[in-house]
Amino acid sequence: MAKFVEDINKLLVELASKVELYVPTTNKSIVNFEKFTGEPFEAEKFKNSTEPIKKILFPESEILYFYKKDENGYKFEQVPLDEKKKIIFGARPCDCAGVERLDRVFYGDYMDPYYDARRKNTIIIGLACNEPPYHSCFCTSVDLSPSSTVGMDVLATQLENGYLLEEISDKGKELLGSSELVRDANEDEVKKAKKLHEESHKKVKKIDIDTNAIEFESDLWGREGKRCIGCGTCTFLCPTCHCFTIEYVGSTRQGRVIRSWDTCQFQAYSLEASGFNPRPNKGERVRQRLHHKYRYFADNFGEFQCVGCGRCVNLCPVNIDVREVMVYFKKKKQKEEVIP
Amino acid sequence: MSKEGIKSEIIDLLKSGKIKSFVGYEKGTNPFFLRPLITSSVEEVKKADFSVLCVSNLVRYVIDDFKIALPRGKTRDSRPIAVVVKGCDSRAVNVLLQEHIIKRSDVFLIGMPCNGVIDPKAAESLWYERNKTHDPTKIRISNEGMFEIADGKEEIKLADFDEIESEKCKVCMHNNPVIYDELVWDKVDDKKVTRGERYKKVDDYEKLDPEKKWLFWSDEFSKCIRCYGCKNICPLCYCEECTLAKDKEKAVLPNEKIWKTSWIDKEVNFSNNVAYHMNRAMHLAGRCVDCGECERACPVDIPLRLLYTKVEKDIYERYGYESGMDSEVKPVLATFDINDKEEFIEG
Amino acid sequence: MNVITNVEEKATEKVWEPKIIAFLCNWCSYAGADLAGVSRIQYPPTVRVIRVMCTGRMNPSFVIKAFQNGADGVLVAGCHPGDCHYIQGNLYARRRYSILAGLIEFLGIERERFMMSWVSASEGGKFAKVVTELTDRVKKLGPQNQLRRP
Question: What global pTM score does this model have?
C-alpha cells in the first residue's frame, strides 16, 4: 500500500520533533547528512551527499571501552551503546544498498553490538533518483537501480505535487502510519512514480561487469597503481568500505580503546610485524580493492560489494576509474581490440 | 617547439635509452581534467596531451619513483625521468633540489608555460547547472571557456574561462617554468599580479575578529576526515616516516624497522585535526609553492590554500624569501639574520 | 565528527588555576628561573618547567601538543640573540616561532596564550615578571578549550 505526503518539509519537522533526524545539508560546497535544523529540503538541488550514510551507523572514530589499572589489576568499563532513535531521510538507493552490504559484514560471523545498537534504532527513508545524479553513476551495472528498495524502510519518490512514500519494511509501515500528514496514495500517483522509475533506470549508462573476467596478473594494475597517490579517498567515501583498526589511546595505566576507519590503500595496512609487506606497491593495493569489491565479495555473498554510486570515480584526484577497468577486462575476455 | 615536436623528442630519448620513463598528461574518463600518464612505452607517449586541463602536479611521481619497493637484488634504475612541469610545478622541483632529495640529473624537465588551468570541481558543478545534453562526452574545454558540442555540430558556450579558472592561477606570479630543459611552446607573458593582489584574500581574512576566525576554522576542520589526501598528493611531503601520520601509516621500505614517530594521536577528532593542519602548515613554511593540489585532493573542500598562503605571506614579508626560485640558496628556516624582526617577542 | 565520549571528569571544588607550560633553554632561561627561586622572587607556582638544551631544539609541534594536552598557556624562553650557547640556535627559533605566532593568530586561537621571551641567566626578576604576566593574561581568558583533546 503506497502513501503520499503533500508537504515533505512539514513531515520532516514533525519527525524531527520526536527523534534525531538526519537530512542532506549543504555546507558551502559539499552536502552531508547532518541533523535537521528546519531548513527546507529541496530535492531538485540535491544530487548525492559527499559522505555516505555509513558515517551515521559506523562512525569514523568510536570508543569501545575504557581501561584503568589499579592495585588489583585492570578494570574495564563498557561504553553505553548508542541506542538513540534516528531517522535518515534522503538517502539514495545506492547508499541504502550500501547499508545492506554493511549488514552482511557486521552481522556476519559475529554480531557487532556497536553497529547493531545503531542499526536497529535507525529508520532509513530512501529517495529515488528521478534521473541519475552524476554522469559517473552506474548502479544498474551492479544489479541495482535508481529506485531499488534494498536496505531501506520507506522509498520516497518526488512527484510534482508531493512525495509518494512506499512502505518497504514493517518499521517503515509503522512510521508512516503514525503521521497524520500522510494519506493513502491514489492510482494515478503510483503510476506516475513507476513511470519515473522506469525512465530513470534507462538513463543510467550500463556497463558489463563480469566477475570472472577480472585478472589477478595483469599489466593494468601496474599502470593504474603508478598513478594512484594512496590518498584513501575512494575507501573513506565508499558506502560499503568498512575496514577498521582498533587502537589504544592513553598510557599503560589508563586509557581507552578506539575503533577508527582504516584503509587498504595505505602502505601500513598490510604491513606485517616481521617488516614484510605483501602489498608494498600501490598497484597491488588497487588490485586488492577492486578484487574485493567485484570478486571476493561476489564469490562469498553472491552480490557485488560495489553499489555503483560513482563517488570513487568522481573524487579520485588522478582519475582511476573502476568502470574503465571493468570494461577493459570484459573486452579482453571477449578478445576484442583493446586500447587500454 | 610544438606538441608533436616535443613528443617525438621524448620518443627519441626513450628509444635511445637516455631517459627511463615519461610522466605527462593523457585523456582519461573524466572530461574535466587530464590524468597523469606514467609510461616507458613509446606507444603510450603518443597519447600525451598538453592543454588547460593539465591540472595535476606531476612532480609527485618523481618522488614516488624513489619509493617503489624493488625485488631483492635489484637496484634502482638511475636514469632521468622526463616530467612535464608548469610554472608552479617547476618551483617544486627547485625545492626538492634545494633540499637534496633529488639530483638535477634525475629529472629531464619539459616546461609548459601556462596562462592558467581550470578547476575541475568548479567546471563540473557549472556543467551540471547549465548543460542540456547530459552527455559528458560532448564537453570541450579550452582557454576560451567551456563549450557544449550540441547535436547539430554547433557549439554552445557554457562558461567563460574566468568562471572555471582555478583560484590559484588567478594570483599566480610565475606563468613560465623557472627551471626546464625543453619547452613545449613559447614562453608566455607573466600575468603582472602584484604581491598585494596575491595576498588580498589573506589580508581580508586577517581583518576579521578572532571569534569569527575561530568559528570559520572550527567549521572547516570539523569536516576533515583525516584521509591524508593533502599529504599524499603534495610533492613536498616526501618523508618516509611522517610525524603527522596515524602511527605507522607511511612506512619505510619493507625491510627496515619502523618506529612510532607520530606526534598526532590516531583518533579522528577535532583537536587532532586542528593539530594536524597546524603542524603541516609549519612543515610547509618557506617550502610550499602553491600548486593547489592539496585543495583539489580534499574530498570535503577545506580551504587549505588560505592557510598555506598566510604562512607564505609571513615568510615573504618578514624575510623576503620566495620558495622554489633558486635551488642553490639555503631554505629560509635554515638560515637567520642577526637583525630579524622580533616584535613578537615580549618581556 | 562522530566520536562518542562519555568521560566523566571529577569536579574539583578548588578555584581554577591556569596550567602554564614553560620551555626553558638550559643555559640561560633555566638558570634565570633558578636565580629567581634562589633570590626568593615570587612568581606563580602553576608554571611547569620543561628544560630543553636550546630553543633551537624546540619543535613547534611541542607547543601544539602542549595545548592539546590541556595547557592553558605556553611560554618559550631562550638566550638573548648573540648569546646562545650553541651560537645560533635561538636565531633559528626566532624565525620559526615568528611564523607559529602568526599562524596561531590566523586560526583565531587566543594569541595571548603563547608567549616567547629572551631571559638570560642573570635575569631572575625578568623571568618572574614574564611568568606572572602570562599567568595574569591566561587567568583573564579562562581555561583553554580550543585545542584541548577530549
Answer: 0.89
